[in-house]
Specification:
alpha/beta
Length: 207
């Protein structure tokens, strides 16, 4: 079994929630979307409370600082989840439409406004990733593809440290368990939190 930290550094909307559940099942409990890291990121830190506490972290803002995590946590494993650009863009577009639309369950606020009031820095994290908040196809695609290439270039020659999971090709337990030296569970690989399920997932959050 892997003994260091495990960081999911795939961009958001690349099955990161499924990856976190898979890591939890394998015995690497962690946190998906650890937004509380954002102030530490802005302060230029290489070590983070969430990374110190959990065995694994996935989703934003983790991909934005993978070099710092590699420096701050030697011996860690990194997992890059990817999707084809067209499918990823469709999911992100729908995600931002939902985030920006006023919803009754949030008292007439958008999901983005509601969570920002709760102290969850959705807005700032997306600006950090894209240089802006508003959805823009060209800007978003450029950032997504640049990130994936940057990760591959950074870990070139380090096959024991980086696993690329192509979710369009059905990546799942076999590759993940081999990478982490973990036994393959007797259950299907998780499929969680698809964009079309998002409104149902947040039901009751405003109460």
């Amino acid at each position: 079994m892997a003994t260091g930290k495990i960081f999911g550094i795939g961009w958001h909307k690349t099955a990161t929630t499924s990856l976190q559940e898979a890591l939890d099942i394998l015995g690497f409990p962690g946190r998906h979307y650890p937004h509380e890291m954002y102030p530490e990121i802005c302060a230029g830190q290489k070590n983070f409370k969430a990374a110190d506490h959990y065995k694994s972290l996935t989703d934003f803002p983790v991909p934005l600082i993978f070099e710092r995590l590699d420096q701050g946590y030697p011996g860690s494993k990194f997992i890059l989840t990817v999707r084809d650009t067209e499918g990823w863009l469709k999911s992100v577009r729908k995600h931002f439409e939902i985030m920006s639309s006023p919803q009754k369950k949030f008292g007439g606020l958008s999901e983005h406004e509601f969570f920002n009031r709760k102290g969850v820095p959705n807005h700032q994290i997306h600006i950090y990733a894209y240089g802006q908040w508003a959805f823009d196809e060209d800007v978003f695609v450029k950032a997504y593809e640049a990130h994936n290439q940057k990760v591959r270039d950074y870990f070139k020659g380090r096959p024991d440290d980086l696993l690329v999971m192509d979710m369009e090709e059905g990546a799942g337990w076999e590759a993940l368990c081999e990478f982490l030296d973990a036994p393959v569970p007797d259950q299907p690989y998780p499929e969680k939190f698809k964009t079309e399920q998002r409104l149902e997932t947040f039901e009751g959050k405003a109460s």
